[in-house]
Automatic annotation (TrEMBL):
<feature type="domain" description="MmgE/PrpD C-terminal">
    <location>
        <begin position="274"/>
        <end position="430"/>
    </location>
</feature>
<dbReference type="Pfam" id="PF19305">
    <property type="entry name" value="MmgE_PrpD_C"/>
</dbReference>
<feature type="domain" description="MmgE/PrpD N-terminal">
    <location>
        <begin position="10"/>
        <end position="246"/>
    </location>
</feature>
<dbReference type="InterPro" id="IPR045337">
    <property type="entry name" value="MmgE_PrpD_C"/>
</dbReference>
<comment type="similarity">
    <text>Belongs to the PrpD family.</text>
</comment>
<dbReference type="GO" id="GO:0016829">
    <property type="term" value="F:lyase activity"/>
</dbReference>
<dbReference type="InterPro" id="IPR045336">
    <property type="entry name" value="MmgE_PrpD_N"/>
</dbReference>
<dbReference type="InterPro" id="IPR042188">
    <property type="entry name" value="MmgE/PrpD_sf_2"/>
</dbReference>
<dbReference type="InterPro" id="IPR036148">
    <property type="entry name" value="MmgE/PrpD_sf"/>
</dbReference>
<dbReference type="InterPro" id="IPR005656">
    <property type="entry name" value="MmgE_PrpD"/>
</dbReference>
<protein>
    <submittedName>
        <fullName>2-methylcitrate dehydratase PrpD</fullName>
    </submittedName>
</protein>
<dbReference type="InterPro" id="IPR042183">
    <property type="entry name" value="MmgE/PrpD_sf_1"/>
</dbReference>
<dbReference type="Pfam" id="PF03972">
    <property type="entry name" value="MmgE_PrpD_N"/>
</dbReference>
Amino acid sequence: MSAAGGAILERLASRICAFTRHDLTPLSLARARTGITDTIGVTLAGIPEPCAQILLRTPGVATAPGAALVFGTARRTSALDAALVNGTASHALDYDDFSGDLGGHQSVPLVAPLFALAEERGLSGMRLVQAYVVGMETLIRLARAVNFVHYDKGWHPTSTLGVFGAAAASAHMIGLDAPRTAIALSLAASMASGLKANFGTMAKPFHAGHCARNGLLAALMAEQGFVANPGVMEHHQGFLDVFNGPGNHDATRIFEGWGRPWEVEAPGIALKQFPCCGSTHPAIAMMLKLVREEGITAAVVERIEVLPHARRLPHTDNPHPTTPLGAKFSVQYAVVRALLSGTPKLADFEGEAALDPEAQRLLALTTARAHPDMPRDGAAQWGAEVIVTLRDGRRLSRRVNQMVGRGGDNPMSSDELWEKFHDCAERGLARENIAPLFDRLDAIEEVGDMRDLTRLLEYTAPLGGGPRFAEVERQGMPLETGWVP
């Protein structure tokens, strides 16, 4: 179904261009700050990862001259290349925020190109925040029009829809008028790509970097006068019919209730508090609650029962993880680690952490099964209960019926956000830069020139001040930091 009253992208472009700082609500501003801060943190954690490091060693990548920083390095390059590398790094650990309506990750297509543009052109933090909010509105509105057929067909919405968000945000940030914004969106439609068949490989985070770069490229081409078809969405050989199939989309949903409220304010926008599969998070939270409220320790535990919603279990029922990836997708290990160490950190899912003898002892006491009282096809599909039997015979439990990450009515506190940010950022920055960077991001709308902020993202010490750089070097992978002693 097409939207009446003109080409879809022309109507969309008029809304993007009409957005101003006066349309920001206090809640949308606060949510934008949080999403941007969280994304910068996970990007710094991702820069030392192999997918980002291999990109940096690939001939022709990040070699063009320019003012845009590759985060956690001293290398500056073109905005396009910085968007590609930083965008890939931002999704390297799958630790970035996500949206149930999108069926993907909404911030990673936006933050990397916006920071690159802001550096290249000396733009303000308020302008970046505005572009971020309207970019997110664009990509999630498109998701409402095509999901969940789009997702179920095998497209990766982070990329296939994120490219529109990146184009919209970039066009808004550089001040394109409505006709050129529509062209940018049309070009983005021809650069949309990303297959779920590549999940579990380096191609998945590359999707995020690729769409960030493509969306920015679309806006820059439109700025120079490039021409494309604004009717590319509703055309019988256009995006909607080709990607979803005739009859499997509803373009009117793009515009219904636009900005009432802004998508950045929606309850379905969620952060990942823990660096592992999101389906394990409700169970982790319940174990942490037991530890906090009951004061239990590993030494007094006789048995642990983990009962997630049935849809959370097939990909996380891994009672004997032996690799870092296996640990991330083991609800048993995630719950045991929460008991042993408190809030799980990145290091808990790296190296041989899962083979720790005490973790292995507790894993032998742990079982997981689908919760019998949580309907498989009910509205709430992100619940879990954790039951701990103690050696003195007491049986303690905590249950949550719905916890899709941390957001909406259950946001991360400032302390929790800082704890995650610090854990991530110390892998790519000198430690003395982390707190000042966090504080600047927490007031990003007050930054007059984003280049003043991004200086704090530059690599300033050997090994970046973080243990992950050292670990990667020990494993024999040459690091591309750009550091000059």
